[in-house]
Amino acid sequence: MNWDDESAYATPPAGDRLVGTTADGEDQAVEAALRPKDLGEFIGQERVREQLDLVLKAARARGATADHVLLSGAPGLGKTTLSMIIAAEMGAPIRITSGPAIQHAGDLAAILSSLTEGEVLFLDEIHRMSRPAEEMLYMAMEDFRVDVIVGKGPGATAIPLELPPFTLVGATTRAGLLPPPLRDRFGFTGHMEFYAPAELQRVVHRSARLLDVEIDEKGAAEIAGRSRGTPRIANRLLRRVRDYAQVKADGVITQEIAAQALQVYEVDGRGLDRLDRAVLTALLKLFGGGPVGLSTLAVAVGEERETVEEVAEPFLVREGLLARTPRGRVATPAAWSHLGLVPPQQGGGRAGAGGSDQHGLFGE
Ligand SMILES: Nc1ncnc2c1ncn2[C@@H]1O[C@H](COP(=O)(O)OP(=O)(O)OP(=O)(O)O)[C@@H](O)[C@H]1O
Ligand SMILES: [Mg+2]
Fold first, then answer.
1. Is 169 in the pocket of ligand 1 (CB under 6 A)?
2. Which of 92, 150, 350, 356 sits 20 to 30 Å CA-CA off 194?
3. Residue 296 included in any domain
């Protein structure tokens, strides 16, 4: 992959995926209302929360500005939320910008020079910042100083500019892409993990309360189990299940209602959607579980290679349903059982439904 190409960073087109990781318009509107406002309200991520709590408490006790914080983790796990919490906990204002928005060092200089003392600067997608801006940031982070270049060519001069102490909060979905000198300048790095089902259940409950939706324990658990470890997806599924409950029932979300609704939206018990299942089904039924090449698999499901590789596969791999091997894509035993099929070597046939009919179902 060519990392200089802007499009290489973008999430590939995946349509309006209900289990997609990036925030769509509706998400953005609702998310602001659903964001926890302080560390106490922030669910899960025990380690990051505890460590961050210490960092912030210590800074407050010293009456100092908190150290720079880097938050890394998959989309929708709460990086933006946590950055706002950091500002709130420090009682500081927050300025929000992103790597792609800073193309020239001058853009960054303008932002940095207008910061007030103790302000939190949130730099989302920090791995997408331009090189010159990045170098300016090194100096700003370390010495609270930037050199502003005035003029062009041989007559250009660098004017040093003192900055007030500030806290940089950087967020990235790809910590591996950050140059080491940048990574090293953060005093604290928090790695956000995927959430456990019990934590997501609490997220669903909390959001339901804020959205004024009635839901019971098992209903929340049903949604949580299909949310792929991601609060953003949990909140989105909750809204769709709420719609279903309003139209098809009395508005109350029970396990039965949640399961019915998510069947309508084609999100299965493990959070796989139609695309995921199509990939897995092709791998099992057409190629006997693999190994099969990515291109062949993509043609079989009528999708682009990139879509299969970047949209469907990461979750399938994470769930232990599919493995990428040097010889091609291979299904794991868990994939066979998830789709209720029997692998050929055990079943004697190519595939059989639920193991009950191992012969002839798919014509040998
Ligand atoms: N720990 C949490 N407790 C409750 N809700 C959460 C938590 N983490 C995230 N959320 C919810 O999930 C939504 C998405 O979180 P957020 O926008 O912070 O994710 P992100 O990591 O910044 O994603 P991206 O990488 O796409 O920018 C928010 O609306 C927030 O309400
Ligand atoms: Mg974010």
1. no
2. 92
3. yes
Contact present, 342 and 356 (Cβ < 8 Å): no
Ligand 1 touching residue 75 (CB < 6 A) = yes
Stretch (H or E) spanning 114 = none
Q: Domain tally for the chain?
A: 3
Active site residue 80: yes
For ligand 2, a single-atom ion, the residues with CB < 5 A are 79-80
Q: Do both 118 and 185 map to the same domain?
A: yes
What are the pLDDT digits (tens) for 234-279? 999 999 999 999 999 999 999 999 999 999 999 999 999 999 999 9
Question: Do 226 and 183 belong to one domain?
Answer: no
| Enclosing domain of residue 235 | 197-264
Instruction: Assess whether 121 and 247 both reside in one domain.
Output: no
**Residue 309: φ, ψ to 5°:** -70, -40
- pTM listed for this prediction: 0.87
- Ligand 1 atom at minimum distance from 34 CA: 31
Residue that terminates a domain, selected from 152, 168, 191: 191
Q: What is the pLDDT of residues 117-130, one digit of tens each?
A: 999 999 999 999 99
- Domain final position from 150, 173, 191: 191
Residue 234: C-alpha distances to residues 45, 71, 199, 279 (Å): 16, 21, 11, 23
Whether residue 4 lies inside any domain: the answer is no
Q: Is 307 annotated as a binding residue?
A: no
pLDDT tens figures, 280-336: 999 999 999 989 999 999 999 999 999 999 999 999 999 999 999 999 999 999 999
- Whether residues 98 and 169 share a domain: the answer is yes
252 in the same domain as 145: no
Q: For residue 230, which amino acid is it?
A: T
Examine the pLDDT at 11 and tell me if it is beyond 70.
Answer: no
Question: Measured in angstroms, how far is the CA atom of residue 133 from the centroid of ligand 2?
Answer: 21
Of all protein residues, the one whose alpha carbon is nearest to atom 9 of ligand 1 is 78
Of 75, 187, 175, 177, the residue nearest 141 (C-alpha): 187
Catalytic residue among 17, 49, 79, 277: 79
What six digits make up the tokens of 68? 């720079």
Tell the residue number behind the tokens 């961050």, with chain if given: 52
**Catalytic annotation present for 172:** no
